Amino acid sequence: MAIARAGAVFRPTPWSTAHATFYGDESASETMGGACGYGNLFSTGYGTNTAALSSVLFNDGFGCGSCYQIRCTGASACYRGSPIITVTATNLCPPNWAQPSDNGGWCNPPRVHFDMSKPAFMKIADWHAGIVPVMYRSGIRFLLQGNGYWLLAFVMNVGGGGDVARMWVKGSNTGWISMSQNWGASYQAFSRLGGQSLSFKIMSYTTSNTIIASDVAPSNWNVGLTYEATVNFH
Q1: Rounded to whole angstroms, how far apart are CA atoms 22 and 121?
Q2: Where do the Expansin-like EG45 domain residues begin and end (predicted)?
Q3: Number of helices and strands (H, E) in the chain?
Q4: In the Cβ-directed half-sphere of 130, how many Cα atoms lie within 13 Å?
Q5: Which residues contact 30 (CB under 8 A, 6 or more apart)?
Q6: How distant is the alpha carbon of residue 59 from its chain centre?
Q7: Which listed residue, 35, 108, 117, 161, has the most CB atoms within 10 A of its CB?
């Protein structure tokens, strides 16, 4: 059992390799709707920083809403400094069995591929390239709800076995507070945590490993918003 201690330093989720293309134009109108059923991505808050996932990542829809950090690397089309963009998965990039996987069938299994909105793609590379090699990583996400005396955190994008056995929260002015399960992947704490930055400690049910996501939410966090950590189970 590898139990992490409070105050331990964790490395960010490691980068993995993939490729990225784009679809649609600069208006991103063709990205609206999609297989995840989010509808108008502007009115639902996703904007243009979105991507369609190859079926390996889409995982029959369980990949919807996942956030990925993506950077272009190893190609002349990549922008200097390899800037990082965070995109949300809102659609499926279906296989194209009429094309080989290395020439047109970019989303054919078992390829890991991101078909980004054009505005998102243009933040990491020259769009004239069409396809670029990228590195990507994802972190655990926390959707916060509640009020001044009650915090409810819905945990998403959990790596490894994808399950949570126990969870704790720590405000910048508190120690670790054990959270109880409210339902599913939602955990609650009856504490006054407003005005404090929040860290979370999560134990995996599958492996009993524990990770700490430090300072995930800033001191001015708000209910209804989702905050992403840079750590995850592997």
Answers
A1: 6
A2: 33-137
A3: 2, 14
A4: 3
A5: 23, 24
A6: 14
A7: 117
Write out the two tokens for 51: 């991507």
CA separation for the pair 149, 93 (Å, rounded): 43
Token pair of 143 as six digits: 């959707």
Q: Is the full-model pTM beyond 0.85?
A: no
Instruction: Report the distance separating Cα 65 and Cα 89, nearest Å.
Output: 5
d(CA 111, CA 125): 20
Please spell the DSSP secondary structure of 165-233, one letter per residue: SEEEEEETTS-EEEEEEEETTEEEE-S--TTS-EEEEEE-TTT--EEEEEEEE-TT--TT-EEE-S---
In tens, the pLDDT along 136-186 reads: 987 788 889 998 899 999 887 776 666 788 999 999 999 999 999 988 788
Nearest to 187 by CA among 208, 214, 156: 156
- For residue 154, the Cα-to-chain-centroid distance in whole angstroms is 14
Alpha-carbon span 112 to 115, nearest angstrom:
10
- In the DSSP assignment, the letter for residue 112 is -
Distance from C-alpha of 233 to C-alpha of 215, rounded to nearest angstrom: 17
Instruction: Give dist(CA 2, CA 107) in Å, integer.
Output: 36
Asked whether the beta carbons of 49 and 228 are under 8 A apart, the reply is no
